[in-house]
User: Fold this.
Amino acid sequence: MGKKYLIGIDVGTSAVKTILFDIEGAIIASSSKEYPLYQPKNGWAEQEPEDWINAAFATVKKVVSGSGVPAEKIAGIGLTGQMHGLVMLDGEGKPLRRSIIWCDQRTAKECEEITERVGRDKLVAITANPALTGFTASKILWVRNNEPEIYRRCRHILLPKDYLRYCLTGEFATDVSDASGMQLLDVPQRRWSLEVLEKLEMAPEMLGRVYESPEITGYVTAEAAEATGLLPGTPVVAGAGDNAAAAVGTGVVKNGLAFTTIGTSGVVYAHSDKAAIDPQGRVHTFCCAVPGAWHVMGVTQAAGLSLKWFRNNFTAGESYAELDEKAAQIPAGANRLLFLPYLMGERTPHLDPDCRGAFIGLSAVHTKYDLLRAVMEGVIYSLKDCLDILKEMGLGIDRMYACGGGAKSPFWRQMLADVFGLPVLTVKCVDGPALGAAVLAAAGTGLYSDVPSASGAMLKDDELQVPAAERTAEYIKYYGIYRELYPALKKSFSALAGLQGR
Assistant:
């Protein structure tokens, strides 16, 4: 038989990235292709579905032809990508309009409509989340309310990566993790909620079949094979939404494991064998890519964004590495200075769009590097807010993986370990979602017995940061004060929001 290979395709917001891996997880070939984002009105965000397909087919063709790997050696394909995007197809499988993607904010009225039709408590109990503008259900209602002719012609509703699946295989399907972000799935039962669909007056037949992430959903058609260089009949597994695939690609596939992303926003994501739901809706609970398991995820709005804001406004072009060096010279606690990183409002745990950033404890002794250290610590405190809710929900976490741009900083990772009181690791492959999709393909095509086995074989741990007990003890004192600040300032934030100005 010879050596086998796998392809992971990540349909991102800015580009498609396609990577060819061997069964040990090594990257053999990689290609990416960008496409535009359209913002026809303030708060709107759309993309052309055909742009994703053109980019995906071109990058697949490039990695297949450029790698020297024969197409018959490619055992399977896994798909991942941006979640929540709405793709509406007519009876011939053609897009009816641009996709309304995850970051679009036009659907506030539709969220109110969903809550009114279903009931907030019932909605959280079934879909594990309150109605949110980012989710797909509110986008569907927006089209029905504002573009009724397009809605009337719609026969199929898909998510971004699942439109690529349709173009590769001709199958209308999705996976449980991505479907969890549509607000139409019964998350505890891992199937479409007929109750929610009935109350929203949506036809179940418009939705694709739901699969577990490693299951084979279809096979590459002759037409797609000709366009990509793949072999007709190559299996395509269900795959996963980007965060769920990143978890698999980071090794977070069993209880006790979690990862923290420090990107523009921040995420703390924990694996759970049970469908743990926060009745207050402060964190998201979705089905994860491991069959029969779930994940719980807290989100902080301005993680890396806070550091970028500080760098752009208060330092003279210093690199992030130089800022790390300067911050490291300041003691833990930033000389009794705290920062609230609410530059974009906050999701977890406050669910408050009106709260804003603040320095607390500022005095004449402080330098800009004290402020810098306080900004970095404030971001980690906000992530600890997320972690504490996960623990409150009964999720025991033994070790934390770190990913995202901010996690490339050993100094920030050490701070994460010290504040969390947990060992923090990275993995060698930084393309977590694409690797996760390939791991799912490896499990689904039988190269490994299951997802944890495939993950264990294809992932390699890299650097480790161990918490320093004396710094952890110091951070506990400051974090206790940090926790008191939002309740004390909440009314002031609301009053400020009511005033004129930017």
